[in-house]
Amino acid sequence: MKKIVILISGKGSNLRAILNAQRLRGGLSEISQVISNRPNAQGILVAREFGAPLTVLDHASFSSRTQFDEALMALIDSYQPDLVLLAGFMRLLSDQFVDHFMGKLMNIHPSLLPSFPGLKTHQQALSTGVKWHGATVHFVTREMDVGPIIAQGIVPVCANDTEDDLARRVLEIEHIIYPQAIEWFLKDQLLLENGIVRVSPEQSQYFYHDQCCI
Ligand code: GRF
What we know:
By secondary structure, the protein is of the alpha/beta class. The protein has helices at about 15-25, 45-50, 65-75, 95-100, 120-130, 165-185; strands at about 1-10, 30-35, 55, 85, 105-110, 130-140, 150-155, 190-195, 195-200, 205-210.
């Protein structure tokens, strides 16, 4: 059974989707630890609700980014995970950290990368007038929001959308693509070649939100 460590900082809706999927799949994986870098993250309640083992490693109690990264790395290593998931984990990670977990570190980002890396992606989508927006699951590499793309979910941008409307729609598709990408990984179905990820046997790596604007 493959071992998973999940890092969170916020609401934990992706954590919930992952834990739900893990429950349904059963047998494929075990959650070794959920780690929150914020002591009051709502996601902590989600981990508790599912009975998932949880550690709070408060970044604010470390005097430097490097010290926090080293402690986090050592904590994760103590579980010897096969897969480390960033699920709304709002900390930049050092090159050393990323190199250490390369190939087994996944992230979900709320945009169709390479559009809109970084923060405020829904605001950027609205202000640039794109008609499609979405989310991307990717392997993490040194450069932020750039690593090999595993799956993308596409949502329409409707004329009167607010940032909240868009965020809600994007989250719905996140909750589909992240568990799917994880399942592929757990079943050894992901092939990475020259920075391109394929699924074997071949499957669609894009997903549509079924809402229409008009
Ligand atoms: C999601 O939009 C995710 O893509 C981004 O942060 C948000 C986390 O939401 N990285 P949640 O904590 O999973 O609800």
